[in-house]
């Protein structure tokens, strides 16, 4: 008997109007595992991540974090959508890092990091500041804590965003193409911070185009296309000997 | 043969030129000189006209600090500040309601803006002031009751009329500011567990302020002048005071100039305040050096 998965998605579906963005997505992420979601753009990777963080509402199947159903409460065979406050509480078990950073531009790096702990977790300010400084130090930005985002490079902003997500002490870190909006020479520093995070045992679900990162850091890779999971498996195996035709086509297109 | 290509008129034949080492000739801006001269002439004519006109300047100077005028000035400032405060609170509430997921709140906010933007403010002032004609008493049944004429003073009628009207306009300004904030900001706020109210208050509104403050300053300046309409319901603001005096002494233009002077002083002070506020709310944007 193995430990229950931290994240469990069972036959998750999601439509935007008539477009079926997700269909029958089933996957699990165990505690301490790093899973990379890869696939062509429009394949539903980002939509899936946004459903896990409840920025979108899924409309079929089920999503559980730590055994708790996301977004709904079941009672007497009927579903009740959770109130906003409950959804905010559920969201705290996940930390999200966005493609476009989305730092709060009117707050310094430090203020960005302490906002969630102080407002959502109601932790004392001094404690939140001390922890934020530790986290900023961990992503190599201790001496940039009083800078506004506009004064930071893209790579630095994304590392602040990682610290901001970590400050909520999430059980699961979600990364939505965290290096896609970066200049090429800044990609390395962000991947480095993520690698350190993975080594420290964090559970991570990463949507990425960085196959090198997926191979080196990811335990497993899930390949998606047209809203469905096409294939998944251990990183090395999936990249070197994919079973499905579509996976092979994608990999040969990306790797050249 | 050198490798330097010859430009038109052979100018490029001196490739050793360095524009940093040669004296620069300042161009003469003829347009500026001509417009400045023309405006100075107009100004001179205007000054001459006023100097020769039949204005008793000593009277203007005398009434500038006259007690009634200063009281009117104080009342104008009080009313403008109070009505703007009411307007901002109502405007923010209406804008938040307008963008809320609750359809009832949305419609209510829309109705409010429609009603108060749709009628002249002077009409609204008269309606509030004459409320006693249809509701002789006001109150909460069983708890408190009073005669409407005692409650609906010129001050309260003006405050309600101007404040409610201002709120309707302010709500549109605030809404535009909220729309200017990137959707990613709402998502980032949610993702760190903030509730809807917290994300509005901590994340969205502070950023919207940068867009809201300039038009809001404009609204405030407009409101200072609109307070003069409250003279029709006998609120003793600046213009009303000036009128009271010139009804008695017939120095019409002198007292209107006194009022002009004070309105300009008020608006200038306000513009200065607006400038400082704009600097404050553009934290993180207008500060390329980045340090606090």
Automatic annotation (TrEMBL), chain A:
Record's keyword annotation contains Transport: yes
Xref: Gene3D superfamilies: P-loop containing nucleotide triphosphate hydrolases
Keyword Repeat on entry: no
Domain ABC transporter positions: 7-251
A Pfam short name: ABC_tran
Listed InterPro entries: AAA+_ATPase (IPR003593), ABC_ATPase_HisP-typ (IPR030679), ABC_transporter-like_ATP-bd (IPR003439), ABC_transporter-like_CS (IPR017871), MetN_ABC_transporter-like (IPR050086), P-loop_NTPase (IPR027417)
Key words of the record: ATP-binding, Nucleotide-binding, Transport
Domain of life: Bacteria
GO molecular function terms attached to this record: ATP binding
Annotated family: Belongs to the ABC transporter superfamily.
PANTHER family: AMINO ACID IMPORT ATP-BINDING PROTEIN, PHOSPHONATES IMPORT ATP-BINDING PROTEIN PHNC
Protein's recorded name: Amino acid ABC transporter ATP-binding protein
Organism (species): Roseomonas populi
From TrEMBL, chain B:
Listed transmembrane segments: 30-51, 72-97, 121-144, 255-277
Domain of life: Bacteria
Keywords: Amino-acid transport, Cell membrane, Membrane, Transmembrane, Transmembrane helix, Transport
Membrane topology recorded in Swiss-Prot or TrEMBL: Multi-pass membrane protein
Domain ABC transmembrane type-1: 73-274
Subcellular location: Cell inner membrane; Cell membrane
A UniProt-annotated Pfam family: BPD_transp_1
Family, per entry: Belongs to the binding-protein-dependent transport system permease family. HisMQ subfamily.
Protein name: Amino acid ABC transporter permease
Species per Swiss-Prot/TrEMBL record: Roseomonas populi
